[in-house]
Amino acid sequence: QVRLMESGGGSVQSGDSLRLSCAPSGYTFSSYWGGWFRQAPGKEREGVAAINGIGFTTYADSVKGRFTISRDNAANRLYLQMDSLKPDDTAMYYCAADGIRLSRATYDYWGQGTQVTVSS
After folding, report:
1. CA neighbours within 13 Å on the CB side: how many for 111?
2. Where are the beta strands (DSSP E) in 8-113?
3. β-strand pairing of 114-119 with 10-13
4. Contact yes or no for 93/80 (Cβ under 8 A)
5. CB of 29 within 8 A of CB of 93?
6. pLDDT for 34-90, tens place per residue?
């Protein structure tokens, strides 16, 4: 059974940084796309960033230049470094695995989410 566990969320001020981590069990990230998605209250879940097995990355326009996705294959971890956070970044953030780029419907595995709240 595949499980993804996110950590690193919290409440911060505008301009602050957070680093999210995703630790899987029963799954190895190294060869497949892994991604981060977010869902704000009343909105659909949207793709934030994704990375494939050879390190190719893709980002939503709203986070380009501020967020960085990375993976540690040795530790089997997926990360999302979030800098210059804005109130609009407030959402539940989800780790996802075994999909394609930022296409939400293609991902097979999801974590339970970690809350990020940014106040102005």
Report:
1. 28
2. 10-13, 18-25, 33-39, 46-51, 57-59, 67-72, 77-82, 91-99, 109-110
3. parallel
4. yes
5. no
6. 999 999 999 999 999 999 999 999 999 999 999 999 999 899 999 999 999 999 999
